[in-house]
Amino acid sequence: MSGRSALRRLGFLLRPSWLILAVVVAGFAYMCFTVLAPWQLGKNSATEHRNQRIADSVRAAPVDVTALLDGTDTDSEWQRVTANGGYVPDSTLLVRLRHLDGAPAFAVLAAFRLDDGRTVLVDRGMVAAVDGTRPPAIADPPAGPQRLEARVRNSEGVPEDKLPMTENGLRQVYSIDTTQAAQVLDLPITAIPTDGRGGYLQLSEGQPGVFTPVPLPQLDAGPYLSYGLQWLAFGIMAPLGLGYFVYAELRARRRENTATGSDDPNPAEPITPPDMDADAATPAPPRQAQTTEARLADRYGGTRR
Question: From start to end residue, where is composition biased (Low complexity) (predicted)?
Fold first, then answer.
């Protein structure tokens, strides 16, 4: 097959429909390799790291929280700690839009002043909402010196469109964040060093002032690894699928051209010659036939009409 014939066979690839399809497939493959797969694989790595931290904390003995406040370790989430001090009076803060056993609930926060004078934020646990909407009466934490055992948790951050509010005489927020809690309670709360956002204490079961403690997450990796591998597979399969369709199209055109005896995959429309009838596209009688008829009429004495 000549070079010109090959170019003609590949000419259909330059049509707008094929160009658009190629751009879509290339963009999809790019997103799979650079965004979608790394997103799921990153979540898998984060989940594995969290599970390892929880497993390590179960085996390790709790440390005094002041050691974390004075240290430089920024990977302290899930670590078990102890805190000695007392609850700050009138420091109750509720967190909306929580769930307890599948029903609406509130998380109850409070400030806890350590023996060295610093104040940390404590998550006392969950309480069920009344009629699914209102918080119940919140009992004050026990007064006097207390010794707490808790886990370090990382602040959740503050939603941009959710502002603190006061309802039924109770201060309420939409997330657990040490910086926001310090502003709402007007207290100098010290964040526990974690991964940059600062941490708080989440009470364990049986501790002074605890409600229903937040359970530990399940220690499984989840589906993130399989999702990431699937996106990688999709990124590989999409260009291969496009290549297969191109090959199938070329093979079909080659069969058609072989059947018609043409080597052009895009034959031009037939052009009506000048001496053809424009309406019926039927060739007019050749001039040579008309001349022969006239000669025969003259030879045998016929009359031309």
Answer: 279-294
Q: Tell me if 138 sits within 8 A of 92, measured CB to CB.
A: yes
> Domain span at residue 146?
63-203
Which residues lie closer than 8 Å to 141 by C-beta, 6 or more apart?
87, 110, 124, 208, 209
What parts of the chain have a pLDDT lower than 70?
1-14, 196, 261-305
Same domain, 73 and 184: yes
Quick one: pLDDT at residue 253?
76
In a shared domain, residues 175 and 199? yes
Contact between 81 and 151 under an 8 Å Cβ cutoff? The reply is yes
Detail the DSSP E strand segments found in the chain.
63-64, 80-87, 93-100, 103-114, 119-128, 146-154, 165-167, 170-173, 199-203
Q: DSSP 3-state assignment of 236? A: helix
Tell me which DSSP letter residue 192 carries.
B
Exposed e or buried b per residue across 233-253, where buried means at least 16 C-beta atoms within 10 angstroms of its C-beta: ebbeebeeebeeebeeebeeb
